[in-house]
Automatic annotation (TrEMBL):
<dbReference type="GO" id="GO:0030497">
    <property type="term" value="P:fatty acid elongation"/>
</dbReference>
<comment type="similarity">
    <text>Belongs to the short-chain dehydrogenases/reductases (SDR) family.</text>
</comment>
<dbReference type="InterPro" id="IPR036291">
    <property type="entry name" value="NAD(P)-bd_dom_sf"/>
</dbReference>
<dbReference type="Pfam" id="PF13561">
    <property type="entry name" value="adh_short_C2"/>
</dbReference>
<protein>
    <submittedName>
        <fullName>3-oxoacyl-[acyl-carrier-protein] reductase</fullName>
    </submittedName>
</protein>
<dbReference type="InterPro" id="IPR002347">
    <property type="entry name" value="SDR_fam"/>
</dbReference>
<dbReference type="GO" id="GO:0016616">
    <property type="term" value="F:oxidoreductase activity, acting on the CH-OH group of donors, NAD or NADP as acceptor"/>
</dbReference>
<dbReference type="InterPro" id="IPR020904">
    <property type="entry name" value="Sc_DH/Rdtase_CS"/>
</dbReference>
């Protein structure tokens, strides 16, 4: 028992992937969970009991409406997980169109500001308050041909470390999680694109990617969720301001 029974949790982008695993894992621990996503059909397939609303985290009006709905249902907030993110455009920087740069930064980085600023007044009233921001191994190593994504994810770490110091007196802990190769569709698409660039098969690309990790495997969304639950639980109360890699020791993407 992680002591998360009754914890009030808001997870962004919970309809699929890592966000869904996080929302479900908190709910299984007896937490009360609310989530949002762009994908209404995906939201509809979440387990009963998880609160949900369509919202684009890059849209401040939609985020305000999301917080109103979530707070009305939860009655307060103990945990914010800023999970939403998109891969953004692929290509050399001079080929990237400015609108795609803006959208990537808005969804991956500015969304975390949009949500944190509304969460903080409520988190201040919690006895075990925590924010977890999803960054990426790209936020530590860089990512050739995906500079907007890497820049946004690097920014997430700066936001996390600054907020952790700023909110320490309020008893709010703030950490970033850096996934690397996560099993799933998104990773498959990234590796397929890399395999094509290199002119090798998908299986060869997968072996190559694993050779740059210590565990020689993917991390699953559920394994990431487990680390996030621990961080947000009372057992994680000594950990703040950290950028924690949960990536099997990935050295390059
Ligand atoms: P994903 O591509 O599977 O998408 C998850 C959900 O985000 C989808 O349901 C989508 O509809 C939703 N979404 C997209 N834009 C949104 C928006 N503007 N507002 C609300 N919802 C939106 O993503 P994932 O792979 O589960 O990644 C989750 C987080 O982890 C992201 O921040 C991502 O950058 C990060 N990450 C993922 C990996 C990986 O390999 N999967 C690796 C490193 C970091």
């Amino acid at each position: 028992d992680l002591g998360l029974q009754g914890a009030r949790v808001l997870v962004t982008a919970g309809a699929a992937g890592i966000g869904r695993a996080i929302a479900e894992a908190f709910a299984e621990e007896g937490a009360r969970v609310f989530t949002c996503d762009l994908d209404e059909a995906g939201l509809a397939t979440l387990p009963a009991g998880i609160g949900r609303r369509r919202a684009d985290v890059a849209d401040r009006g939609a985020v305000a409406a999301l917080f109103e709905a979530a707070l009305a249902e939860l009655g307060g907030l103990d945990v914010l997980v800023n999970n939403a993110g998109i891969a953004g455009p692929t290509g050399k920087l001079d080929e990237i169109n400015p609108e795609d740069w803006d959208r990537c930064l808005e969804v991956c980085l500015t969304s975390q500001f949009n949500c944190a600023r509304l969460a903080i007044p409520h988190l201040r009233k919690s006895a075990n308050a925590s924010i977890v921001n999803l960054s990426s191994a790209a936020g530590k190593h860089g990512f050739a041909l995906r500079a907007p994504y890497a820049a946004a994810k690097w920014g997430v770490i700066g936001l996390t470390k600054s907020l952790a110091i700023e909110l320490g007196d309020d008893g709010i802990r703030v950490n970033a999680i850096l996934p690397g190769l996560v099993a799933g569709d998104r990773q498959r698409r990234v590796l397929e694109a890399k395999a094509q660039q290199k002119g090798i098969s998908f299986a060869e690309m997968e072996r190559l990617a694993f050779s740059f990790t210590s565990i020689k495997d993917y991390v699953t969304a559920r394994q990431l969720a487990d680390q996030i639950l621990f961080l947000c639980s009372p057992r994680g109360r000594t950990i703040s301001g950290q950028a924690i890699s949960v990536d099997g020791d990935t050295r390059m993407l």
